[in-house]
Amino acid sequence: MSTFPFDRLVFTPFMVDLDRSPLAGHFDAETYVLGAFNPGMTVLPNGNILLMVRVAEALRHPVRDGKVHAIRWEASEDGGTYVLDGWPLELADTADPRKFTLHGGGWKVMALTSLSWLLPVEMSPDGLDVIAVHYDKAITPQGTFQCYGIEDARISHMGEGAYLMTTCSVSPERHSTTLYSSDNGLDWTFEGIVLDHQNKDMLIFEGLVHGEYWAQTRPLGDLYFAYPPGSEWRAGPSINLATSPDALHWRPNIHPGIRPHAGTAATARMGGGTPPILTEIDGKQGWLTLWHGVEPKEIVGIYRTYWSLLDPDQPWKVIAGSHTPLLEPDPELTRPLEDLLYLRDVVFTTGIADVGERFIVASGEADLACRITHVPKEVFRSA
């Protein structure tokens, strides 16, 4: 049970109107909202909060006629359409509700049980009430590099009239990071692919460091080299750093970023959460970043949110932080949605806004709904 003054679900699958979905009318099969979650967040020029919600739209009955089906975007004469693909059931492992693995390829190949698109939802300045849902400004696939969808937006407000948004674009071609820009936080222009295959959770710092753009990245792989015996670090996915002169062309930074500690299994795997913001914690100025640590358990693991304060001039240096989770999954929040749950033990934090004596923090809860938490700054000082 949360102890924060405001900590609730603010947008759920029931609040998505599928009649206005970009997939509507493209194929003869019923869909439903598997999840409306992992929202990128920023403050709009009018003071309202924007949640860029990931809508994972799935087939109601993916298995039929001896095949398991997935949704795919395909180029067409009028720009694009959505089609269904089917694979023989004997080739598919469907143990994970989010995806299925295909056997016989010689390496790991998977397909998704849903296709994700991004829905801008305008909230009140405290992030707790829906003001408008902007279906006409939805972010949808526009090329074969996004044919399986667009996921997990992160938005960085770079100053007046300048917003940058990173997303994960999914396809058989590559699992890439794509960039969008906006001058108002609502109308977005596609800028291209900025990171290539399986480099997820790219978070652009909300400000320049010595005239350069900085970002956190998280490359994935199936092989990691061991740290020496007795090291304070654990081998595995970690949060790396990159720099750019223009936010389009990125160079990995030579210094390691935030790494898993050997002393705790709760952060055995980690990835970025919120774009780092420049603030002050307990008299120390630095880049505050919230990130997720994953404790191994069953198929998905337990996701919790942690925080670190990075040096303002040398962002690879952690100057403050805590091994105690800032946010944990809260089953009380999803209890009214029990019939929709397909995962548990997951809070995936994706946005932060500084509003004086507290931060507004946006997360995805259980890969199902959007959670807003008001976190007093005293929490960080006491940690």
From TrEMBL:
Query: Which Gene3D superfamilies does this chain map to?
Result: Glycosyl hydrolase domain, family 43
Q: Which domain of life is it from?
A: Bacteria
Whether Transferase counts among this entry's keywords is: yes
This one is known as: Putative GH43/DUF377 family glycosyl hydrolase
Keywords from UniProt, A to Z, are: Glycosyltransferase, Hydrolase, Transferase
* SUPFAM superfamilies documented for this protein: Arabinanase/levansucrase/invertase
Lineage, opening ranks? Bacteria, Pseudomonadati, Pseudomonadota, Alphaproteobacteria, Sphingomonadales
Recorded family membership: Belongs to the glycosyl hydrolase 130 family.
- GO MF annotation list: glycosyltransferase activity; hydrolase activity
